[in-house]
From TrEMBL:
Entry keyword Cell membrane: yes
Lineage, opening ranks: Bacteria, Pseudomonadati, Pseudomonadota, Alphaproteobacteria, Hyphomicrobiales
Keywords: Cell membrane, Membrane, Transmembrane, Transmembrane helix
Protein name according to UniProt: Lipopolysaccharide biosynthesis protein
InterPro entries hit by this protein: Bact_polysacc_biosynth/exp, CobQ/CobB/MinD/ParA_Nub-bd_dom, GNVR, LPS_length_determ_N, P-loop_NTPase
Amino acid sequence: MSHEFISLHDVFYFVRQYTVFISAFCVAGLLLSTFYVITSDPIYSARTQILIEPKIPRGLQQQQPAEVNLSLDTAQVESQLAVLRSQKIAMMVIDDLGLMNDPSFRDIHGPGIGTRIRRAWASIVDAASLHDHGGYAALENFPWSDDKQTEVRQPESERERVAVEVFDEGLEVQRVGVSYAIDITFQSLEPALSARIANATADAFVREQVQTTTQAAGEGIVWLEKRMQEVGNQMNEATRIAQEFRAKHDYSIDQNQTPVGGQDGVAGGDRQTTLEQLEVTADTYRKMYESLLAAYTNSVDQQPYLIANARVITSATSPKVESWPRKKLILAFGGLAGLVAGIGFAVARRSLDRNVRSAQQIGRELGLACIGELPHVRFKRGGFGRLDEVLREPQSVFAASLKSAKLSINVARGPSQARIGITSVSPGDGKATVVSNLAALYAVSGIQTLVVNADNNSAVANDLLKTPNFDVFDQESVDAKGHVRKIQLIEETGYYCLKSSESGAGNLIIAKNLENVLKEVGLYYKMTLVDLPPFTSGSDTLSICPMLAGVIVVAQWGVTSMDQLAELVATLRNNNSTVLGVILTKVHSASTRDHRKLAAQAPR
């Protein structure tokens, strides 16, 4: 059966493992968003609405092609939006309201970090009534504060540029759906000012439309007057020439008196001008003049009635509630951003962490079973429990976890295999605690148990075997029965113990002596646990493992390197040793939830 790369259990375990880490990031995100909210200036938005009257040619109005109308409408509305955003409208509003001299008309970027810190500190001072505190007075002169910057008199052009930038920053213009209505929204730090500027922008737009139309009409009238004068002069000249021609009763005329335009008649090859031609020319100029005169009269009559192509349909009012900052939204975003950042950092930390942290990790990378996960025991031996913890607290989570490991050992070793070695990667992994408490469990269950101490730096040797009554295991002796007589009962734990030489564990490595001793003690003890030296003491110390029924490896959760653990397991396998499994010590409490439930349900 194929193994999933990331199972649902792995996800849940990852979340439980880094709950505190992720929660810290969430709290940090909420604190930062709260800091932003309480130190930001409130921004108020006022909205007005205008309606654009579409301009559609009469021919299109009669035919009413929907596609053409829609395209024309879109172009017209977009053009009006561009006009509303133009610098001309901005300067009209700034001049009308005198915004360059209004101190409340400033940018809405928000204060700098120095000002925000001062505001946050001021809020804390107000809440705790610490106005007389020296720190508050010192923070008044905070060097990063931008509230106390001295204003430098700027040139008029620079002031206008800044005012236009502030206006453009606060102005928002957008079309309402596909209609001809346009929303004009202005954001300001003062609610009344935002309404005044929004209304002034709409009025300036309408006024600009009227001014543009009036200017265009005035230019048209001037052009008509000039053109009428030119056509009138041509008409008078043509009429004069026709009348002179008629008065002479002659159908020929001097070439120098040819009418304006140079229209000549051709007859028989000679250039001649007839009376009919002169009268037609004069009549043409007369009709042109009459047409221009009618257009001029119409333009002069309609000029007082010119109106804009837009009108205000909704006026802005002073807002009562600020539009920014949106407190709930910012707090929710801060918490979510902290959550995402926490998960991201946790994933990165987990990816870079090569320490042992889960039973699934051991099974996936080493192909071994994690037969036990022993949790912390607070205030006991650096947070891991005493050498007789299972006897002092038999209903604890620690005892329940070790009992589960004991059951796994019994299943793995079989009925005839009673010699188990226990080793670890490095000192301090909790190997001695596992050896002593596991032996105590076997002893309590009625099984004659012997602990062979082969690690002089172990807590078993340093704490339990300090008494001078203990004889040591001498390498020069070959009498196994003599060694058996040196075994002493540890009354606190109930199991028996054989101590190695003080000169080091090397005395125990002599396979000949140890094999004889193990054969001899096998007649008296059904379970023998050998407290082996750690792997960092040298791989040669593990040469006695092949004569054991199996070896259990102890690894400290979150501290033991997976690479070192894999190296230790590979060394044992290359040495023809049977590895029964791995016991994790000092495991995070979230990994032992099942054992906690069992311990809670156990009778007291």
